[in-house]
């Protein structure tokens, strides 16, 4: 740390921070605190009057089968998306971690979906999966003679938003896996090869364990943004349907606030999400550098 | 000789494999592009065609007019540019405070800024909407951009970058009677090109791609942003006019792709060093 530079200007650092602090306090801290307060109130129907109701909103949520189903659905969604997404990304990262002419072009191509917005990703996949003019069903029909009701059947709609989310977030995972792979020294691979290990053994016994800090970090980040960022994808592809099959927590929150006009209930859902974020972050800091392999 | 031949075959097969995978990864964009240039009759023909018979621009013209694409794109561009500059400006200032000054409550304030990373839009959206509406800023540019203007990530990364600039520079600047603000503007910022470019790209794209907040705070058609345009294409196009919907989607994604490809190097670096999404 540098010490007492510019010590004659004692107010300067506060002035420098002030603009950021004003914005962060007004638009981040204040609304978050308000979320907590609002979650303890209910709004009288057809009126702006708010009535203190203690933990009623929370009790209502946790006794509501729709919300519980939504929580469970989100957990399954997050698990499958992360597991599938990380597996696909890892394989692609290993493929583009080779010394090959033009390899940068492939890397760029794999990053592209990450720059694209969830809304656009949703729109592209709705088209691909549509039963009339979409190409996915055409090829499935051609190859396996099946027609999949992608967005009209609950189970397949759920799979559809998972596919779109994995596709969209792949680039982020690849950037980190690639950085992780490049930090593994060549000498490790060479000595394994001299000891007679084959490619698969090297991948399982060396690459995966040495990548575990990266993987851990990616799991944490993926939890956070699969929960939050999937809003755009869901809103374009399924609007939570059919019959709630893709109604994940973030979408339910939005609907309770802006369609059903129940701010107290929506705020309580925000607070539950906030607590989840804090728990995940706690794990990140608590175990981030432990129990995973660093060289 | 045999070894090099085996090498060559290996290289070619790796290239082939990577090409096939690249094609699959880009498939959603390529097919959207293809369909956007096809007239309705070709889109609904069976089997679906992969390549348009001839370039048909009708979908683009119709999509442009249907959702007032010009207005949406201008709104998005303005909002993204404002947020990009705002985040950079505030982030440079606060980052500088934490890298070059010692002051009371420094650690607490630094933590207070970083802690906002735990407060994604979704956990505060309900009161934020009420608060911004009460300020009379619903459906305005100010209401759209204000909540995004400051960022923990930008502050943190600017601080990290400023810390890498040798102290000797500052000492000699001080000796020459260079004040703290002149030091920042004439020495630190000119030395920060790539970091600023990386953050600018990421911040621009974060705002360009934002959907939830615009959806909530903007309600008149002339204020809406491009991402809302995608949704409007679905709700207002007559019975699944895919050519039109994909043409509109392509128009919304083109600026993203341009910014990404132009600043790819910085973008990847920006992501890799921050590893955070907002």
TrEMBL record, chain A:
It is found in: Cell inner membrane; Cell membrane. One of its GO terms (biological process) is transmembrane transport. The keyword Transport applies. It is a multi-pass membrane protein. The chain crosses the membrane at residues 12-30, 75-96, 108-128, 148-167, 214-234, 265-285. Keywords: Cell inner membrane, Cell membrane, Membrane, Transmembrane, Transmembrane helix, Transport. GO terms for cellular component: plasma membrane. PROSITE patterns: ABC_TM1. Residues 67-284 form the ABC transmembrane type-1 domain. Belongs to the binding-protein-dependent transport system permease family. PANTHER family: BLL4140 PROTEIN (PTHR43227), SN-GLYCEROL-3-PHOSPHATE TRANSPORT SYSTEM PERMEASE PROTEIN UGPA (PTHR43227:SF9). The complex is composed of two ATP-binding proteins (UgpC), two transmembrane proteins (UgpA and UgpE) and a solute-binding protein (UgpB). This is sn-glycerol-3-phosphate transport system permease protein UgpA. It comes from Halanaerobium kushneri.
UniProtKB/TrEMBL annotation, chain B:
It comes from the Bacteria. Gene3D superfamilies: MetI-like. It comes from Halanaerobium kushneri. InterPro entries: MetI-like, MetI-like_sf. GO terms for cellular component: plasma membrane. Belongs to the binding-protein-dependent transport system permease family. One of its GO terms (biological process) is transmembrane transport. It is found in: Cell membrane. This is Carbohydrate ABC transporter membrane protein 2, CUT1 family. The chain crosses the membrane at residues 12-37, 72-97, 109-129, 141-162, 183-208, 242-263. Its main location: membrane. Coiled coil: none annotated. The keyword Coiled coil does not apply. Residues 73-263 form the ABC transmembrane type-1 domain. It is a multi-pass membrane protein. Keywords: Cell membrane, Membrane, Transmembrane, Transmembrane helix, Transport. The keyword Transport applies.
């Amino acid at each position: 740390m540098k010490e007492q530079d510019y010590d004659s200007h004692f107010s300067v650092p506060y002035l420098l921070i002030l603009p950021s602090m004003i914005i962060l306090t007004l638009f981040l801290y204040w609304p978050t605190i308000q979320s907590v307060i609002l979650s303890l109130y209910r709004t009288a129907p057809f009126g702006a009057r708010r009535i203190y109701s203690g933990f009623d909103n929370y009790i209502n949520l946790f006794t509501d089968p729709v919300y519980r189903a939504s929580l469970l659905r989100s957990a399954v969604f997050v698990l499958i998306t992360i597991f599938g997404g990380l597996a696909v990304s890892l394989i692609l990262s290993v493929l583009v971690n080779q010394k090959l002419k033009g390899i940068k072009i492939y890397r760029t191509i794999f990053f592209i979906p990450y720059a694209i917005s969830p809304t656009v990703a949703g729109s592209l996949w709705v088209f691909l999966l549509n039963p009339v003019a979409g190409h996915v069903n055409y090829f499935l029909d051609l190859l396996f003679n099946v027609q999949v009701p992608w967005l009209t059947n609950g189970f397949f709609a759920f799979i559809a938003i998972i596919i779109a989310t994995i596709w969209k977030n792949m680039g982020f995972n690849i950037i980190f896996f690639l950085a992780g792979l490049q930090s593994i020294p060549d000498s490790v691979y060479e000595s394994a090869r001299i000891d007679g290990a084959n490619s698969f053994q090297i991948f399982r016994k060396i690459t995966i364990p040495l990548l575990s800090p990266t993987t851990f970090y990616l799991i944490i980040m993926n939890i956070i943004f699969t929960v939050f960022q999937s809003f755009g994808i869901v809103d374009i592809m399924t609007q939570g349907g059919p019959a709630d099959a893709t109604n994940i927590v973030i979408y339910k929150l939005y609907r309770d606030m802006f369609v059903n006009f129940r701010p107290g209930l929506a705020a309580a859902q925000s607070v539950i999400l906030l607590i989840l974020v804090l728990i995940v972050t706690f794990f990140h800091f608590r175990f981030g550098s432990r129990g995973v392999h660093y060289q | 000789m045999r070894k090099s031949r085996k090498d060559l075959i290996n290289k070619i097969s790796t290239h082939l494999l990577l090409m096939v995978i690249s094609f699959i990864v880009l498939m959603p964009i390529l097919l959207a592009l293809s369909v956007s240039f096809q007239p309705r009759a070709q889109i609904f023909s069976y089997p679906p065609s992969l390549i348009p018979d001839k370039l048909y621009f009708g979908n683009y013209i119709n999509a442009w007019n249907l959702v007032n694409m010009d207005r949406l794109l201008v709104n998005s561009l303005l909002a993204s540019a404002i947020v990009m500059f705002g985040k950079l400006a505030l982030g440079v200032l606060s980052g500088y405070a934490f890298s070059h000054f010692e002051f009371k409550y420094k650690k607490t304030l630094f933590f207070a800024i970083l802690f906002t990373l735990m407060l994604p839009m979704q956990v505060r959206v309900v009161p934020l909407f009420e608060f911004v509406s009460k300020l009379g800023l619903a459906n305005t540019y100010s209401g759209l951009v204000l909540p995004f203007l400051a960022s923990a990530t930008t502050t943190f990364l600017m601080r990290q970058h400023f810390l890498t600039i040798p102290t000797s520079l500052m000492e000699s600047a001080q000796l020459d009677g260079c004040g703290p603000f002149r030091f920042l503007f004439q020495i630190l910022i000119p030395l920060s090109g790539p970091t600023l470019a990386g953050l600018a790209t990421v911040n621009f794209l974060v705002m360009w791609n934002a959907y939830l907040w615009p959806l909530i705070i903007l309600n008149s058609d002339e204020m809406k942003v491009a991402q809302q345009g995608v949704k409007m294409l679905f709700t207002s196009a007559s019975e699944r006019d895919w050519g039109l919907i994909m043409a509109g989607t392509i128009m919304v994604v083109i600026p993203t792709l341009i910014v990404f490809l132009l600043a790819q190097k910085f973008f990847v670096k920006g992501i890799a060093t921050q590893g955070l999404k907002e």
